[in-house]
Design goal:
By secondary structure, this protein is mainly beta. 3% of the residues lie in helices and 47% in strands. It contains 1 helix and 14 strands; from the N terminus they run ββββββαββββββββ. The strands form 3 sheets. Strands 2-3-6-5-4-7 form a 6-stranded antiparallel beta barrel. It has a 6-stranded mixed beta sheet with strand order 12-11-10-9-14-13, with no helix packed on it. A two-stranded parallel ribbon has the order 1-8. It is elongated.
């Protein structure tokens, strides 16, 4: 059984959960593109982290503004359009410790980044660099002798072994 993917990410301690896409109104509202499933799950985290130099700046989510077309939030200390516009394009992180433990049949995208990808015969196709959400299914972006886009579906993914840092896929090396 293929493990269900949950959320994209970047580091062992911090996970990417979204980004700010625009300012909203004159009082510092921010539009958010959430990478969580469903998108409003990002609001379960009362504190978000923004990258600042070599560290992270914690910022509290004070309010969600109901808007039919996008997720809009008010953040502590952001009270003007200018302040909000300064955050547009910034990536939103949360600490891994804030996340719920994945269910038995789930795995976070972060846990797949960097894993080696092999065929059942042991041929190395490369390493997972990223994942894509196509709507229909998730796709592993595997970088080896060439870039491969491998669907993360039960017919293709045979095994995910986090201990061995290995994914075994039923995939032709010529693709």
């Amino acid at each position: 059984m293929v493990l269900k993917l949950v959320i994209p990410s970047v580091t062992e301690e911090h996970l990417i959960v979204g980004k700010f896409t625009g300012a909203f109104g004159i009082k510092g509202g921010l539009k958010v593109l959430s990478y969580t499933r469903p998108p409003d799950n990002i609001l379960q985290f009362p504190t978000w982290n923004l990258s600042e130099g070599k560290g992270y700046l914690a910022i509290k989510v004070m309010q969600q503004i109901k808007h039919p077309k996008s997720l809009v939030v008010m953040l502590e200390g952001i009270d003007s359009r200018d302040a909000a516009e300064a955050l547009v394009g910034e990536t939103i992180f949360v600490r891994r410790s804030q996340l719920p433990r994945p269910a038995k049949n789930e795995i976070y995208w972060a846990d797949l980044i960097g894993l080696k990808v092999n065929t059942p015969a042991g041929e190395c196709l490369g390493q997972v660099q990223n994942l894509l959400d196509t709507g229909a299914n998730d796709v592993l972006v595997v970088d080896g002798d060439k870039e491969r886009l491998i669907p993360y579906i039960q017919d293709v993914v045979i095994e995910v072994d986090l201990v061995k840092k290995l994914i075994v896929v039923d995939w032709d090396a010529d693709f």
